[in-house]
Specification:
The structure holds two protein chains of two kinds. Chain A contains eleven helices and no strands. By secondary structure, chain A is mainly α.
Amino acid sequence: MDPRRKRTRMLWEFVLPSVLADGASRAAEPPMDSDAFAGFYERSARPLWAYLVRVGGDPALADDLMQESYVRFLCAAWPESHQDEGEVAARRYLFRIATNLLRDHWRRPRAASIEDIPEEFLAAHVSSAQSDSQAILSPAMAQMSPRERQLLWLAHAEGYSHREIAEVTGLASASIRLLLFRARRKIARLLREPDLRTRSEP
Amino acid sequence: MTLRPCPCEKEVSELLARGQWPGNCVPELRAHVSGCRSCRDLVLLTETFRRARAEALGAARLASPGALWWKAQLRRRNAAVERVGKPILSAQIFALAINLCLVVGLLAWQARRGLGWLTWLEQLPQATTLHLGKLWPSALLNSGLSLTVLIPAAATLALLSGVVVYLASEKQ
């Protein structure tokens, strides 16, 4: 190559740093292809929705956050340390994204008042609250803090270990043990004593 | 409040995880669970949460994975375009800065030579006919540089402004 042209090219590469090449390669290489994603989605979407709806307490919110979680999962740079662990790690990573989205949702100031919520939305809540387990668990869960709901669901519904819960929630493994112990005591008492369970919060 | 777990908790957890509680449980362990608060809580919670999970799995409303896939692709592509667009934005800012410098330089240069050429503004209301020649700055016309400086400078400004406007509109 002509040395002058080579010098000019190097200058352009300096002015437009590897952004062009980097951007193109990132756009071209998602963490999994379309078919692999469809399979992964089929296996992980329902547990993720269950987690979001039970912890967040709102099916519409669960729908939105689930979609956003998958889009972010596909857009995110997959951590290299997790690539060898396969689908189990991918699922944990997905739950972590969803947990962060829930946390962001709770931190956001509430702008809507009860009058702004359409009636059919409230009706959907009433109709979906008919199953036995929901009638038992929902009032008890409503009296737990969001963090406690997350820990309890991940430990007892998903069967995650303390280390896995720490990875999903971003808390220290030692804290998980203590928080989970307290949350378990509290919800067990609420589940055993219906009077406590149905008592509305101030 | 003690945090020491019951030694049987792990065994009970494993039975619950495998779905073998209480069917495949030895009577001694069952007797222990009925007397141990920690294990009793564990059984109660795990059974309640697993039932709630099974019900929620059936109630899930799933979007199409294809739509999510394409939405993610679109977002990735937009992010890539955004990354690529950053140097272009810098170039636009650079071009704008050059333009401003040229304008300021030209004004400063003219101010040093005296703002006499602005007198045409004062003479304008008295004039019956407008002569384009009067619009030329007198300081320029009197100097040796005159049009040889003004025209290239104006042309450069016009060209750079055009480039800036084009790039800005293209980005929008």
